[in-house]
Amino acid sequence: MRAPRAGDPDVRRYKTTVSSLVDLTAGEYRVLRGNPCGGDYQLLPWHIADGSGGS
User: Fold this and answer.
1) How far is CA 50 from the centre of its chain?
2) How is 23-43 classified by DSSP, letter by letter?
3) How far is the CA of 31 from the CAs of 15, 36, 47, in angstroms?
4) Measuring CA to CA, how many Å separate 35 from each of 11, 31, 53?
5) What is the sign, positive or negative, of the torsion defined by CA atoms of 8, 1, 36, 26?
6) Is the dihedral of CA 31, 35, 36, 40 positive or negative?
7) Which parts of the chain have pLDDT scores under 50?
8) Distance CA 8, CA 30 (A)
9) Strand, helix or coil at 3?
């Protein structure tokens, strides 16, 4: 995906705001603010089988 350009029409200006990865085997959920190539994913502090937010 390319970066948005100032001259693009509004309907062509878009960007990735959040990227997420789910490892179904390990039960891990990781998130990254921005593009997938923009940094390191952060492991969230719950197991996906535990429900919403570990509750």
Assistant:
1) 20
2) ETTTTEEEEEES-GGGSPPEE
3) 16, 9, 14
4) 19, 11, 24
5) positive
6) negative
7) 54
8) 32
9) coil
3-state SS class at 20: strand
Token pair of 5 as six digits: 């350009």
pTM: 0.61
Locus of tokens 């919403």: 52
- As a whole number of angstroms, the distance between CA 20 and CA 31 comes to 4
Given this model, what pLDDT does residue 22 score?
Answer: 93
The full set of domain ranges for the chain reads 15-54
Please measure the distance between the N-terminal and C-terminal CA atoms of the chain and give it in whole angstroms: 36
Q: What is the pLDDT of residue 34?
A: 82
**Token digits of residue 47:** 């197991």
